[in-house]
Amino acid sequence: MAKSPKISASHESGGLIVHISGLLPSLSPAEQRVARLVVADPADAARRTITDLATAAETSEATVIRFCRSVGMDGYPQLRIRLAAEAARRVEPPDARVVGGDIPPGADLAQIIATIAFNDARAVEETAEQLDPAVCEQVVEAIVGAGRIDVYGAGASGFVASDFQQKLHRIGRTAFYFPDVHTALTSAALLGRGDVAIGISHTGTTSDVIEVLEQARSRGASTVALTNFPRSPITEVADHVLTTAARETTYRSGAMASRLAQLTVVDCLFVGVAARNRARARKALEATAEAVQSHRVGSGRRRG
Amino acid sequence: MAKSPKISASHESGGLIVHISGLLPSLSPAEQRVARLVVADPADAARRTITDLATAAETSEATVIRFCRSVGMDGYPQLRIRLAAEAARRVEPPDARVVGGDIPPGADLAQIIATIAFNDARAVEETAEQLDPAVCEQVVEAIVGAGRIDVYGAGASGFVASDFQQKLHRIGRTAFYFPDVHTALTSAALLGRGDVAIGISHTGTTSDVIEVLEQARSRGASTVALTNFPRSPITEVADHVLTTAARETTYRSGAMASRLAQLTVVDCLFVGVAARNRARARKALEATAEAVQSHRVGSGRRRG
DNA sequence: ACGCCTCATGAAAGTAAGTTTCATCCGTGG
DNA sequence: CCACGGATGAAACTTACTTTCATGAGGCGT
């Protein structure tokens, strides 16, 4: 046979629909009916079985197959998945996600979710973009070589500090976190050369954290600041400054996006440190995971 | 038959892949093999015939069909076109960013940062996509009407629980968090009808948290579970189930991305609750912000 | 330990979908 | 009028998909 032309199966990848409507006039009447259905609603066509589509086009399955070949497909299933893919691609991104702004008063949950997720994701991405690998490297270096690591933070940043402490601890580094300023100051006073003190403050103006970091520095420890504002007071007492890039919404609750950004930075440092000695880190992680195993139910796969 | 529960075919519209990876641990071994293939390369899977896929997963066609049903599809063809659509929608990961995977041994800091940020951002976005606004609404409703709210969580999820508690507290809701199981149990025993208990566990298998939630439920409180796995044990003791969508890797068992996903959900709930009474919430926030004002330096402009 | 039960699983039977073949139809040009 | 060629659908055929069922492994209570 070898008659069906099979128009350029090669490079119409960018627009099957366009391609089809382009060669619509060159198709036989019955095939055109099929083509029109397909072009009109690709997603719907993808859902139909070949018999279904044939019936809808008032023709036979054979014609549908011929149509497939005419537009360069191997067969109906291939057309189907291509159509599905095409249809999915042309869905435009969600409407009005408020960027960096406040949540509008009348917003419903779906809007709130979309807005928050969008801003959270952006904060993470933008933070990563502006993060200086060189500075990270220095910080990782310092942590790896440190005898002891203190992590300070208050309020919402306290959670992040605590999280970082726990992470470092899990891979066998001696790390501390203090929820209380006095204790933190006491600890800072005992730091020395080669130790590391990390202060986390979104605004960079939390006096408690600054004070403690200052103390640590005066004792010879390397100091690191993690803040959203590169020229805030905390940066003045830090040897290394890492910044987040969260544009907080007006609902400045507890600094929502900034927490995530901070955590992302923490993750990077953590992995950086862990990567310095993969074997040891992995072993430590496995050991700690095993330790809590007895507090888990359904060891195997879970189900109802 | 009527055995495979067919988890929420309703609201996984936003992310089939995500949905599948969430269900992964609850699947049988053979189905898991299929699932892994599908998740690893949806586009490729969409191209395969059922026999082909079965062979690749070293199992029978029957298992593939079972897998389809398990993830809420009618049959294989439907899965196929959904996969094709999904694959088309997703932008492929830029260059060498390992998606959901491990950081390669030789990676430098810049690579580590890019990879982590990418995965973190994805976890946030995908979580938002699959989050059911209706369930969120119910939870918000419950919190708004609650006399008291207990938030439980252990390990990494403990930070999230604590964060949520603090947020709720800041807008004037009576919320508690307990780092210790015994105290938590004691508290749960004192809950009653109209109160809310929220349990956070990434794996959904943390027995401590489950136990406490169960206790709370038996006392008549509304129970909420926040987990990555929609069919994990914790969901059995929860009236409302909220899921995150972090594909955590084995190595990074510090549950990095999942924390961010959890926090995003927490943020959504928080804003949802706050939106119920904007005036009051705003006033409360301002009051609390003012309270820590004396602990800030350089009240004026910070930043550049 | 034993038997019971449940569940996972693939073989095979059964059904539906997709593909090919082929006879028919229709219009066209000799 | 007949030969011809393309379009078309019926039906045969093939492949893909789905269901049923027997088997066997693993857990659970006795």
Automatic annotation (TrEMBL), chains A, B:
Question: Gene3D superfamilies recorded for this chain?
Answer: Glucose-6-phosphate isomerase like protein, domain 1, Winged helix-like DNA-binding domain superfamily/Winged helix DNA-binding domain
Q: Name one GO biological process term.
A: carbohydrate derivative metabolic process
**Cell inner membrane listed as a keyword:** no
Is Glycoprotein included in the keywords of this UniProt record? Answer: no
Gene Ontology molecular-function annotations = carbohydrate derivative binding; DNA binding; DNA-binding transcription factor activity
Q: Which residues form the SIS domain?
A: 139-279
| Pfam families reported for this sequence | HTH_6, SIS
Q: Where is the HTH rpiR-type domain?
A: 14-90
Kindly state which keywords UniProt assigns to this record, in alphabetical order: DNA-binding, Transcription, Transcription regulation
Name of this chain's protein: MurR/RpiR family transcriptional regulator
UniProt organism field? Micromonospora endolithica
